[in-house]
Amino acid sequence: MSTHIHEFDWPDRVVVGTIGVPGTRTFYLQVRAGKQILSIALEKQQAALLAEKIEEILDQLITLEGNPFSVPTSTPIELVDNDQLEAVDEQFRTGAMSLGWDPTTAQVVIEAHPITTVEADDNDEWLEEDAANEPEMLLVRMPVGTARAFAMRTHEIVGAGRPTCPLCGYPMDADGHLCLPPEA
């Protein structure tokens, strides 16, 4: 069965954003090209790791002699995107992701695949997927400046969650935390 690929080669916008309040936020990777918008849900840790790895790729490219891909060392001001997510219609929840570099187009490449569940019948035989469950993936290619802006915004979004406990390092809820006594 063929995989349906949602491909964005030169997106107008690619961001991570959230819906909900800290502690119950849902993270989304949203991509737009023209009128086509696609949103996939992902875990906070996936978003943080994606931003970190993008920065690592960009920082390694800067060290190449002469910086042949003109990788910016910081986010270009004209690419800063602090706008909210656009209308979110979740396409899928992200499972496996991969990250790469395409030197022919000087773009960072993100692949995201949905979480897959495997079911077996009584005979432990694999069930075939029907057309409604056609495998799909998101493929995004973004230029280096956009990738730098994406990573910066993602770090800000991830960091805007609940404060961490100074004693145990776990997130604290607004209504209290086990390590800290209630305020009088």
Break the fold down into its secondary structure elements and pairings.
Blueprint: E1 4-8, E2 13-19, E3 26-33, E4 36-42, H1 44-62, E5 90-102, E6 107-114, E7 136-143, H2 144-159
Parallel strand pairs: 1-7, 4-5
Antiparallel strand pairs: 2-3, 3-4, 5-6, 6-7
Tags for this model:
Secreted effector protein pipB2 fold; globular; 2 helices; seven-stranded mixed β-sheet; 184 residues; alpha/beta
Overview of this structure, please?
The longest helix has 19 residues. The relative contact order is 0.23. The chain has a single domain, classed as Secreted effector protein pipB2 fold. It is an alpha/beta fold and 184 residues long. It is globular and about 55 Å long. It has two helices and seven strands, in the order ββββαβββα. Helix 1 links the parallel strand 4 and strand 5. The protein has a seven-stranded mixed sheet with strand order 1-7-6-5-4-3-2. About 3% of the residues have low confidence.
Shape estimate: globular
- Give the strand content: 25-35%
- The top-level CATH class is Alpha Beta
Give the low-confidence spans.
126-131
Average predicted confidence as pLDDT: 87
Order of helices and strands: EEEEHEEEH
Question: How are the strands of the largest sheet arranged?
Answer: 1-7-6-5-4-3-2
Mind describing the biggest β-sheet? 7 strands, mixed
Total number of domains: 1
- Total count of helical runs of at least 4 residues: 2
> How does the helix and strand content classify structurally?
alpha/beta
Predict the CATH topology.
Secreted effector protein pipB2 fold
